[in-house]
Sequence to fold (631 residues):
Amino acid sequence: MLKGMRKNVKSLSIFLWVVIFSFVFFIFVDWGAGRLGPNANADTVAWVGGDRILTADFNTALRDRKEMINRRYGEQAKQIVNDPQFPARVLQEMVQERIMTLEADRLGIKASDDEVKGKIQTYPVFKDEKGRFVGYQRYQETLSYFHMTIPQFEESLRKEIIIDKLKTYLTAGITVTPEQAFSEYKKEKDGATVDAYILDSQQVPYDGVPTDAELKAFYTKKQGEFRIPEMRGVSCVLFDTKSAEKKVGVSDGEVKSYYQDNIVQFKEPEKKYLKRIFVKKSDKSKEKIEAVLKALKEGKGFSLLAKENSEDAKAQSGGDWGAFEWLYLIPEQEKEAIKKLNEGAISPAVESEQGTSILYLYKFEAEKVASIEEVKDRISTFLRYQKAQKQVQKEAQEFLKSVGKKDLAAGASKLGMKVGTAQNLRSGDAIPEVDPSGAVSKEIFNLAKAGEKSQPIFTYNGAVVAQLLSMTPERAARYEEVGDKVREAFIGTKRRELAYGKAKEMVLQLQGGKVPPAAPFMTVKSGEAVTRVGTLADVGRVKGLETFAFTKEVGSVSEPLYTDKGYVVVKLQKKEIKSQEEFNKEKKAFMESLVSNQKDLFFAGIFQNLLEKYPVKVNNFVMESYRKGGE
Fold:
């Protein structure tokens, strides 16, 4: 919660979280459309191994994250917190943390009270001007501002310490040799500059009309590339959430109870809108600040003075830091001065380690809570949807139980229920009026044989029980089935051949000292940076680019280099190759950074194994209610 208040203090690197994200993301991609968790208990949002993430704990984490984002981003926060995937991202972070703490507990990794105390001392917000702890009262007040108790905050720190220890324990043997480090150093530091002539083969004119004989010959040559994927047939029964919503009611008492129990969701924190004139420390800073103060007393506008004199990122916007951004980015001395300002007041000069500031509190909005009347319809819609979810969940499970081993259609017919069927479905295909998301077709590909029934599958429209009717294996496509695709591939191949010919012409023009004429299919980028990774901006990896850039002489022109979209021809303008001596000057710091990244990558691989040890199941009925509640 208070991570935004720290300065460069992290338990895991951003690089590591990105890698872990790539392993765990698949669990949450379709969180609003998938199988129910075990028993689909409403008090549990996810299961991690044998452990549960309780809905109440998730509510707290979701609330805290929303408040943090609101404080940090102001008006821009709405776009973030109203994203239907926002709850899934918060749950994802909770799952990542739970997996790592479970493994740490298995290994007996703990965090002592002294370690927690030391961690607290790393937060600048808990230090006074002399670097001493601010005291219990200030500590408690700061946490209260963020709606946290001391035990909650210290428990979060304890988890951070444990996770950091886990990473250290599991990656203790990771090292790199000086030779490996030098190789990586050159990949990162060696550089070249090129002029790039990029050809998009799809934009190259092609006026030819392929004959049927040409297309068939092309199909025969490339037959292995044209395949019909496995397809399946399904029957299904939908328990419609919208229909269930009409059958359930929400009383005024339920709305009132939800409002009172979740009042923090409807709070808007106080807002202090700040403008700032900042002058960096220098021999003339005192003189400059005094001149600004004098101009303010004479009635000159604060915004204009900020544009003329301020030396921070907000100068050109009149020194306007808004209501939230300043909370995280200005020194503590200034925050203390702001506490003493009333609306419309301008501070005297405030000194800090970075420089001197003048602060203007141009607007103040007190904390407010939306009235129950303002949010009544929103709460009622949310509660009605929750009830409808529980109802269709119950009906689907009872129906599946009643059908037993009987055919799905026969069981539904006895109950007077409508059965839908769909044939030739690929995994992820939508089923009109039943499942626009593709969740049902994905799930039937997990069934082993015809006749097998699924557990209730939650979709946007409700809960679906499906039965696999048929399975058609993947096969080679007949020409008649893929004629349009064959034509498209044939023309694409011809365009690429033409693009290669034009690229060869460019090579000759550049080698002769001429500039290739502009063309609609060509983009020219001058002064493009190239490293030993061999990529170009907006193009990606280019095969052969690294070899050319670092082995040829300046002024050389490459042969056409293959890209996903066509070809690129480059002319080498300059290059810089780092020496062993230059590496030696940075050796220690670079090797430490490289080892850290290697450990992150290794740990991320271990995390993938932990996902198998502690399997994750998400209660999609519960998660869908958060998506619905955010609309």
